[in-house]
Every structure is written in structure tokens, then in C-alpha cells.
Description:
The chain is 2% helix and 62% strand.
Amino acid sequence: xxxxxxxxxxxxxxxxxxxxxxxxxxxxxxxxxxxxxxxxxxxxxxxxxxxxxxxxxxxxxxxxxxxxxxxxxxxxxxxxxxxxxxxxxxxxxxxxxxxxxxxxxxxxxxxxxxxxxxxxxxxxxxxxxxxxxxxxxxxxxxxxxxxxxxxxxxxxxxxxxxxxxxxxxxxxxxxxxxxxxxxxxxxxxxxxxxxxxxxxxxxxxxxxxxxxxxxxxxxxxxxxxxxxxxxxxxxxxxxxxxxxxxxxxxxxxxxxxxxxxxxxxxxxxxxxxxxxxxxxxxxxxxxxxxxxxxxxxxxxxxxxxxxxxxxxxxxxxxxxxxxxxxxxxxxxxxxxxxxxxxxxxxxxxxxxxxxxxxxxxxxxxxxxxxxxxxxxxxxxxxxxxxxxxxxxxxxxxxxxxxxxxxxxxxxxxxxxxxxxxxxxxxxxx
Length: 429
């Protein structure tokens, strides 16, 4: 889409001396003007073209209501219904100016660039014929066959085919099912890469799953959608939410090839009233449905047993803890390797002490997000602590690594980006 700005080279040809241009140039032909006025000598004067002005160079056509060429200042200005056309590419603006001394083309009153289904609109645009960098500012919207971008400012490097956007950046796919937002974004279409940073967040709606949302946020998000595959990297203060499951970690990786999220760096995961801590947490999401969660190394699952006794927590630890999940709810647990458990007991609303057990493997079932049945398998060692011993001392019964976190992430609302601006291309004489 962005190779469009080669067309501004045609405008530069109107004002650059032939020896300053690269290679042989096609002649610029004035096909029509209702009138032409010349002021001053040929070498330093001003030439003004009025009414239905039409220039042609090769397969490029420039039309406008009025054009002024100042030889002394090496500048050309085009006014009113300016249109630059080459094939199916069109640039529209109420006013375009090109300065041969600075090599800058400027559209300060709005610009609209079209190429088939691709378009860029903005209230201000500039292009350098030396650096080949185009800058759009104020209510920028860029659309192509794969993404839509909204930003305060967008800078396109034609040589590198990269885009940098800043200031309230929003990016969506063409269907509007995937959105990513942040303060700044970098896009490299050569490798299918989008990097968003500064309070970055993404929202993905699964149309096949009753509109459930996968939400990922971090200081920096990197999205790669090359070759029909997708991967996400969330760096620094990463957050993940899917249904009733949410998580935090220092970093987070996802790949559609492996269909898994890897959470590293102090990861913590919540599901209903359960909390999982481990050195690494892996969430398997085949078909983008949460299937299981694996806590690896120093894994600890904590469940708040009863709101009447907020200091009492059921706990299961092990070298690994595997949670089997259905409909975003934990159904089963398996803890292996140095497995231990602390479970508080109660009869109706009356506490009945706790059991502390170690085993080779611990398996547990859950009902409505609460621990129900627990099974200890192999090498079992256990002890019972009656209620008179436990009462008032529940906080002393904690497995190694215990921490209860209440800073569960929530989905940040997606603020709708501004509407596509209307670029008026009417008379601007």
C-alpha cells in the first residue's frame, strides 16, 4: 500500500532542475489549463495555471483547480481538488506543496491516498523525496487487506517498508475480531511483525465460542503473523485473561503452532477461587480453548476454603501440578514429585481442624471451583491437627512458597478509536 508515495516524485519533477533528478526524466506535459499567467523573467519568475489544470508525465496525471510554480523559490503549489493518479493509485488533497530546496512535499489541509482496497487518510501529510519517508499526522487511519491502523502520527519508510505509529495507536484485523492498542507501534510487513509498547493490550474475540475474549496486556507486545501462523510475546508486567482464568508474569509467550502460553518470571494464575504459583506455568489452548495448566518447579495450588474463615487455605504442592480444565473451570488436579497437602476440615459451618499429608502423588477433584475429593497415592505420610490446636493459629499452617495474591488482573475496556476523518477535496483556491 505505502509505495504510493513514489507519485510525489512527479510533483518534484515540476520544480527540480533536470540535473538534480536521478536518471532521464519523462517530459512533463501541460495538457490543459483555462488560462496561464507569467510574472517576471523566465529564470526567476512565477508561472500560474488557472482552471481545470492537468499535467501528465508518463502514466501519472496531476489535476487541480490552480497551480503556481515559483522559479526563484523552487516551489510548486497545487490548489483545489488536487488529484494525483497512476493506475489504480490516487492521492487526493485540497492543497499540495512541494519545495525543491527542502525536497519536501506537504499536504497541510488533509490528504487521502487510495490504492484498490487500501487507503490512508490524515489531516496533515509530508513526504521527503530524498529520505523517502512519509509522515502523516492528526487523525491518521491506514487500511490495507490485512490490518486497520488508527494513530495520532504515522511514519512510513518506503525503502525499508516499515511503519512507526505513535499517540493512541489502535490496530485491528479487517474483521474486527483482533485488536491491539498502545502508545507506540512498529510494523514490518516484510516479516509480518507488529511491536506495540507503552501500556500495550490486545483483545481477541472467538466467534466460534460465544464471543469469549482472550485478553493479553504488558508493557510491550510483539505479534508475528507470518506464513499464516501467529505468535505473541508479552514483555514486562504481562497479564492474561480467558474466561474465568487470569494470570500475571514477567513475560509471556504464545505460539499457534504449539497452541500454548508459556508464563515465566514469577508467574501466578487464578481460576475461580484457586491460585497457582510455580517457577513456570504453561497453559495449553488447543483450538484456542483452555484445556490444561501445568505448573512446573516449586508448584503450589492454594484455595480459600471458607469465607467465614478467611485465614484458612487448602494447599497442594509438588514438583509439578497439572490442572485439567473444562469450560474455563478446573475439574481435576494431579501433583507429582514431593507432593504435599494441607486441607482444612469442617462439619457444616463448624471447623474440624486439618490434615497435613505427604505422598508420591496427590490427585484431587473440584466442584464449582472448590476442592471436593482428595486422593493420596504412594509413600503416604500424614498427621491430623485437631481444631483446638488449629484455632487461632491457622496462619501458621502454610506450605513452602505460600503467598495469597488479590491483585487479579481485569480486562481493560477497549476504547473505540476515532472515526475515519473526512478529507475535503473541494475547492481550495
